[in-house]
Amino acid sequence: MRIWDISQVVRPDMPVWPGEPPVRVMRNVEIGDGCPVNVGEIDAPLHAGTHADAPLHYAPDGAASADCDLAPYIGRCVLVDVRHAAARVEMGDVDWDAVAGAERVIFRTYDRFPAEVWDSDFTAIAPDVVARLREGGVRLVGTDAPSLDPETSKTMDAHHEILAGDMRILEGLVLDDVPPGEYELIALPLKIAAADASPVRAILRELAK
Ligand SMILES: Nc1ccccc1C(=O)C[C@H](N)C(=O)O
Ligand SMILES: [Zn+2]
Ligand SMILES: [Zn+2]
């Protein structure tokens, strides 16, 4: 069955959230002079690239990445194309028939994912859309944007609708080549203690016919 890799490349020059330190990938030990191995090290903001927010990101007593149940991050999901949305994905932008009964919904907002430059004007998700998804039984909401809320948000309203249903979030997905439809999602957060987010290797797999 076909696999779509919907993850960004983690690299030193990747765009990160304004004010965050850059990603660094170092080589601490090199093969040669009696040393049999190369050994590297990575230093990256937890929200860099394709990642899963933990509840700790938007709730002071929220669960950290290491403490999140894995079930929301594996299973059937519906990918919806909302490239027609403006500043936010609003109720009228969503094909509610397509997401009916879905446990996981991921939104495509970009024609082409901006891999080279930071996009401050990304398409957010309106809080009432998240609330409607929660009421419909959705456990996980994903997006190719770097956040559910606008970059300048001080209230994180969409994140708080997620919190109200203890739902999970994927951000920074790369959905350019994936047709709308139903897939198997696999995108497991790393078991990082006290972390408010974790990088994930997100994939979509075709469902068995
Ligand atoms: N680094 C930040 C600093 C301040 C506010 C937000 C961020 C984010 O990274 C956004 C995050 N991806 C989010 O889950 O909305
Ligand atoms: Zn995030
Ligand atoms: Zn977020």
From TrEMBL:
<feature type="binding site">
    <location>
        <position position="53"/>
    </location>
    <ligand>
        <name>Zn(2+) 1</name>
    </ligand>
</feature>
<feature type="binding site">
    <location>
        <position position="47"/>
    </location>
    <ligand>
        <name>Zn(2+) 1</name>
    </ligand>
</feature>
<feature type="binding site">
    <location>
        <position position="171"/>
    </location>
    <ligand>
        <name>Zn(2+) 1</name>
    </ligand>
</feature>
<comment type="pathway">
    <text>Amino-acid degradation; L-tryptophan degradation via kynurenine pathway; L-kynurenine from L-tryptophan: step 2/2.</text>
</comment>
<feature type="binding site">
    <location>
        <position position="51"/>
    </location>
    <ligand>
        <name>Zn(2+) 1</name>
    </ligand>
</feature>
<feature type="binding site">
    <location>
        <position position="159"/>
    </location>
    <ligand>
        <name>Zn(2+) 2</name>
    </ligand>
</feature>
<feature type="binding site">
    <location>
        <position position="17"/>
    </location>
    <ligand>
        <name>substrate</name>
    </ligand>
</feature>
<comment type="similarity">
    <text>Belongs to the Cyclase 1 superfamily. KynB family.</text>
</comment>
<comment type="subunit">
    <text>Homodimer.</text>
</comment>
<protein>
    <recommendedName>
        <fullName>Kynurenine formamidase</fullName>
        <ecNumber>3.5.1.9</ecNumber>
    </recommendedName>
</protein>
<dbReference type="InterPro" id="IPR017484">
    <property type="entry name" value="Kynurenine_formamidase_bac"/>
</dbReference>
<feature type="binding site">
    <location>
        <position position="53"/>
    </location>
    <ligand>
        <name>Zn(2+) 2</name>
    </ligand>
</feature>
<keyword id="KW-0862">Zinc</keyword>
<dbReference type="Pfam" id="PF04199">
    <property type="entry name" value="Cyclase"/>
</dbReference>
<comment type="function">
    <text>Catalyzes the hydrolysis of N-formyl-L-kynurenine to L-kynurenine, the second step in the kynurenine pathway of tryptophan degradation.</text>
</comment>
<keyword id="KW-0479">Metal-binding</keyword>
<keyword id="KW-0823">Tryptophan catabolism</keyword>
<feature type="active site" description="Proton donor/acceptor">
    <location>
        <position position="57"/>
    </location>
</feature>
<dbReference type="InterPro" id="IPR007325">
    <property type="entry name" value="KFase/CYL"/>
</dbReference>
<keyword id="KW-0378">Hydrolase</keyword>
<dbReference type="InterPro" id="IPR037175">
    <property type="entry name" value="KFase_sf"/>
</dbReference>
<feature type="binding site">
    <location>
        <position position="171"/>
    </location>
    <ligand>
        <name>Zn(2+) 2</name>
    </ligand>
</feature>
